[in-house]
TrEMBL record:
UniProt keyword list: Metal-binding, Zinc, Zinc-finger
Pfam families for the chain: zf-MYND
A GO MF label: zinc ion binding
Species in which this protein is naturally found: Antrodiella citrinella
Superkingdom of the organism of origin: Eukaryota
Protein name (database record): MYND-type domain-containing protein
Length: 184
């Protein structure tokens, strides 16, 4: 299930996008050419923003720096005896208060394959299974511990999970994506 975009010129469903800014969508070359006078001003700015955002994303991806201790990484509140740390990831050092722990993005640690030690491979696919620093989604195997899935969702033979190494039946690749899983 891909995202649907609409043409910046005529509002029809768009299948193409500007090759410079990669942000503005069009249904045809004709609409793109007709829109150029309006689009060209913002196009160069968006292209520069893409360069900055890509560099920032790469920097975040390569950062191993641990967050400061003693305060919530999600909201920056200082922990006290009355308001203690609710959870801490031993791998990345992310700490959360009880309010941020249940938040869909602030409650996600910086690790790519798990959240506070709870492995994504052992859970049903969800849109919020991602790295809290880079927002990169988990793309590994899935073998939820719950039962009740039809045989069709599993690969035919057991094998080692590419995340945890456990030898088990894993989901077929298409069911590892939350968009496909939710439609099954």
């Amino acid at each position: 299930m891909a995202d649907i975009h609409f043409c910046a010129k005529c509002d029809e469903i768009a299948t193409k996008f500007c090759s410079v800014c990669k942000h503005t969508h069009y249904c045809s070359e004709r609409c793109q050419k007709d829109d150029w006078k309006i689009h060209k001003k913002g196009c160069k700015i968006q292209a520069q923003l893409n360069i900055i955002n890509d560099a920032h994303h790469e920097q975040l991806k390569n950062t191993k720096e641990r967050p400061p201790q003693g305060k919530c990484t999600g909201c920056n509140v200082k922990f006290t005896e009355d308001y203690p740390c609710s959870d801490e990831c031993s791998e990345c050092g992310y700490q959360v208060c009880e309010s941020c722990e249940v938040h869909q993005s602030r409650g996600t640690c910086y690790c790519t394959n798990h959240n506070f030690g709870r492995k994504y491979c052992a859970m049903e696919p969800r849109w919020y299974h991602k790295n809290g620093r880079t927002q990169e989604s988990y793309k590994g195997d899935r073998h939820p511990t719950e039962e009740g899935y039809i045989a069709e969702v599993y690969e035919p033979k057991e094998r080692a999970c590419n995340n945890c190494g456990e030898v088990t039946k894993v989901f077929k690749k298409q069911y590892c994506d939350f968009r496909e899983f939710s439609s099954y």
